[in-house]
Amino acid sequence: MRIDYPVAVDNDHLIWRAFHNQYWPALYFIDAQGRIRHQHLGEGAYEQSEMVIQRLLTEAGAGGIGDDLVSVDPRGLEVAADWASLKSPENYVGYERSQNFASPGGAMLDKPRMYQLPARLRLNEWALSGDWTVKKEPALLNTANGSIAYRFHARDLNLVMGPAAPGTSVQFRVRIDGQPPGAAHGVDVDEQGNGTLTEQRLYQLIRQSKPIADRQFEIEFLGPGVEAFAFTFG
Question: Would you say the pTM of this structure is higher than 0.85?
Answer without folding.
Answer: no
